[in-house]
Amino acid sequence: MSGTFVGMPAFPEAARAAVGDQTLRGNLRHATHTIRAKRAKAVAEVSDWDQLREAGKRIKDHTLRHLDRYLVQLEERVTAAGGTVHWAADAEEANRIVAALVAETGESEVVKVKSMATQEIGLNEALEAEGVHAYETDLAELIVQLGKDRPSHILVPAIHRNRGEIRDIFRREMSEWGRPAPEGLTDTPAELAEAARVHLREKFLRAKVGVSGANFMIAETGTLVVVESEGNGRMCLTLPETLISVVGIEKILPTWRDLEVFLQTLPRSSTAERMNPYTSMWTGTTDEDGPRAFHLVLLDNGRTDTLADEVGRQALRCIRCSACLNVCPVYERAGGHAYGSVYPGPIGAILSPQLRGTASEIDASLPYASSLCGACYEVCPVAIDIPEVLVRLRERVVEGGPVVRDGNRVVLRPAKGHAAERAAMRAARWAFARPGALRAGQRLASRTRGLHPRTLPGPGRAWSATRDLPAVPAEPFRDWWQRTHGGEEAK
Amino acid sequence: MSARERILGRVRRALADVEPDDSPYERAIERSYVRAHGDLDAERTVGLLAENLADYRALVHRCTADELPCLIGRLLAERGSRTVLVPPGLDAGWLAETDVERVPDLAASTPDELDRVDSVVTGCAVAVAETGTIVLDGGPDQGRRRITLVPDHHVCVVRVPDQVVASVPQALERLTPTRPLTWISGPSATSDIELDRVEGVHGPRTLEVVLVGGVSHSPGGDGR
Q1: What is the pTM for the complete model shown?
Q2: Which of chain B's residues have a Cβ under 8 Å away from the Cβ of A231?
Q3: Which fold has domain A46-301?
């Protein structure tokens, strides 16, 4: 994934810093609570929400189970419509393909519509290394790019910034990149949006190459779909001469008709709107309307590895609506950066460790970035059972076991940091199998209550640093039961 | 081995545990959701469209076919427009009551030239009442995608009730997937700053939708 996040501390450490940042917590709380309430209202308008959710889940599952067939069909239709299809097994290969396509045009700048896939592969950095400047054109992405920052939310990447911070970034940075911010720019959203409009318009009007992702690809027709609000997507998709779309292989829908499900569930789940302001659909190239050349880069980058896990593969149903972020009590407090991934929140906690593997400390910590409260599953418009996958991944991290990495079956070793936990579990297994020993241990614990420390010593310190130790009762339950109900057992 | 073969091979190996299932797609997916929410007659469907368009800050007007040229003339005048982009197949009568300078939709026009045009007038392919959406499919009365994007003022004419459907499923049935399609729900907007909605970022800041019916719907002709 993107080099941007290399060296990120593991989740507990990053989260501790985020939780202490009052401005950040205020910004996040305001944003998540606002959108949560709006979303619930938008969903309540649709009487058949549960049926749409179920259909969406089934369509995506069916697609994933026949992904090879649909990929080939999509390639055939895109090619027949005048597009060119490229395949990229990993980030490096995808970046190389895009860089070569840009080089062919002779251009040294591209305009980009917000895309999770290109963030995932670190395309902007890869292009920069080739001397090509990539301009992000989504307002929030622009704020992030100008602020030399990282996105912290799937849908609203600058959710962690308030209007005052945004005004300061615009005043300070816009002149470095092109048209400066207007004199006397205030922090009203309307003025800030206007400044972005003026700043970016000169780039749109001269751009020869556009880069996008896609929300959906239709195998039956070869049609790509981009859903957006600002019009920057339409600018990037229609004004340049060359359009390059980098899309994860899981974004396929079998038929045109399938859009009837997702065009109802996606806008309501993500921006809480009946419909987002703009949706663009294109099939290959059209004579004298839009780009003359269209390239589709189909990206694997860990998706086939994820597909190989029969529990974890459901994460590939994700349509990147971000509803799970907005309801997550952990995300609300820890913020998006703590996840160390372009996919933050609950979906990031299951997607990132599967796409990247759990070798790094941050990826091994992500399955624990959850209270397993289940709110994410409740709101998911394609019913991804995120808690189920989290538990599966925790098991993988602790116990090890067979997984697929880069297409090869490998056996994962248990994570090092969990030796103490495994030892504790072994001890528990031993004690539960010996009632006498358990009883003696419990009595001992109760009688020494006053001496118990508030935190654990030794290897247990890390565990108790983020949790309160449970208080030991004055009397073990078994003794209490004996004392109060002792005679009833025979009944 | 090419990346294509490598990826397809990985997909097949990853799915080795999946039971083969060759049932036709139509049967594989149960679609128990509804085709439209509620059972509205044509007139109420048009009313819902108007309501939802206005809710997303489009300016909605209603008139009869006879009143349309006058209304379009007035909208362009109120806006102070001096130039208007005209798709090749737009009904010439629609612009009969205005002397604003016509700019034809040409492939050779540069984005800068389009940026200097004040307004654009188009028809549409279909409009969706439940979501307050108009859909353009590049037909002769709609022109290239960019002409409804770069100018700041878009006047879109919807023939009611013929071009109005209730729902997204019904709209998809009417459209041809291989045409370039643009779905528009209100003017360009962003909620990226503290989730405050602001209209008009990169697309037209003003979207005016004219619902044209055969008979007069209100005595004034323009039920704004």
Answers
A1: 0.91
A2: 149, 188, 201-204
A3: Rossmann fold (3.40.50)
